[in-house]
Structures are given as structure tokens and as C-alpha cells.
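dude i think i finally got it to work??
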Amino acid sequence: MLLLVFAATISPVLHAVDTKEQPGVGALDPDYAAGRKAIEARNWNAAIKPFSSAALRGPDNADLQDYLGFSYRRLGQLEPALKHYQRALALNPRHRGAHEYIGEAYLMAGDLANARKHLEELRKICLLPCEEFSDLEKAIAEYRARPGTGTR
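look at this
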């Protein structure tokens, strides 16, 4: 009986699909918590090692993949960033943060068409206005306003 109560309590946490992050994950894994702390300190290099360690134990955690992608993108390393964002989206196709950030990575690579695809995905996912949609929409507008980028 106690097991059923526990399963019913934790089930919403394990099946959170639209959130940026699964609640409570950081409390369960010290590497995850250390990676988040490094992100908050804007220390992208320091975030990669603990997130990578946590990902070895939790390879199917879309949030970990998203944070790894974020850290690599902030370091300007687009190839591993895209790989981790794509993995996050394979695990959770409705992961708003991964859609926003992969769109921003595509803009860094000069790929407006793929950035727009992720904006359209966010438009479908965010039935109400959401920050991820607004942020990517703004990034695309700023990209298009830069000299020489226009509608590429």
C-alpha cells in the first residue's frame, strides 16, 4: 500500500513534459546540483563536468541534456551543443528550453531556417504565451536586423 502511495506521489515528477526542469532532480543528484550552481555562476566550463557525470547515471534525462547543450553553446562549441539539444528533444519533444536554445544555437551557426522551425514548435507547445517562445522570437528578430543576415 505504501508503495502505491509513493508511486502516485512521484509519478507527476517523473512525467513532467512541459517544464524546463523536473522538480527535485537536483536534490537527488549532487552532480546535477553542482552543474546548476556553476550555471548560476555563469561558469560554463565548470558546469560540463558535473552534468556529464550526472548524465552517465541518467542518460534519459532531457534536462541534463539541455543543460549540457546550454553550457557548450555558451562556450561557443556548437557541435556538442546541438548534439545535446537534439538528444534532449528526442527524449522530450515538448521540452521548451531545448527548443529555445537549439534555435539560438542555429542562429549562432547562421541557420535561420532551423531556428524558425523550433520557433514554430514552440508556437504549438506554448498554448499560452511562454518565455521560451518570446525569447527565441526576439533572438530571431535581432538576428534578422543585423547587417548581412536578413532572411538567410
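Residues 1-20 have pLDDT under 50 and may be disordered.
im so relieved honestly
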